[in-house]
Amino acid sequence: MSRRAKKAAPGVGAARPTVTVCRGCCCGTPAKVPRLDHEAQLTDLRTQLAGVAMVRRTDCLDACERANVIVIQPSAEGRKAGGRPVWLGHVNDPGAAADITAWVRNGGPGLAEPPDILDLYTFSPSRRVRHELED
């Protein structure tokens, strides 16, 4: 990821980043990730990002081997600045969710540099999976 200067987060009424949280067959299930309160993680993201980003739940992002998966899509301004969706896998601890929240609150992809720790979670899904999310 390139290093970008921090810009202001989108204001009220502006197009906001989208945080897509997988909660399908594997992600969000105690059978796959037993020591995480999955609903609390989703609720926390929604609460912490209210008014900053749209947080949506989806059934399956087809990256089950990396449960729990979260995708951060840039705002319109972030996309214009070169931001692209960032796929994060194994988001299974409160610290990772807090780092995601802080980054998105600062603008997200294209507008703010993600915390270095998120490099450990970043992955590239197959082209087919990427296109399905963007459609």
Structural description of this entry:
- By secondary structure, this protein is an alpha+beta fold.
- Strands 2-1-3-4-5 form a five-stranded mixed β-sheet, with helices on one face.
- 27% of the residues lie in helices and 14% in strands.
- The longest helix has 12 residues.
- The N terminus is likely disordered.
- The relative contact order is 0.23.
List key phrases describing it.
135 residues, 4 helices, disordered N terminus, 27% helix, 5-stranded mixed beta sheet, 5 strands, alpha+beta
List the helices and strands and how they pair.
Layout: E1 18-22, H1 38-48, E2 54-58, E3 70-73, H2 76-80, E4 86-88, H3 94-105, E5 122-123, H4 127-134
Parallel strand pairs: 1-2
Antiparallel strand pairs: 1-3, 3-4, 4-5
Helix pairs in contact: 1-3
Brief description of this entry?
The protein has 135 residues and is of the alpha+beta class. It has helices spanning 38-48, 76-80, 94-105, 127-134, and strands at residues 18-22, 54-58, 70-73, 86-88, 122-123.
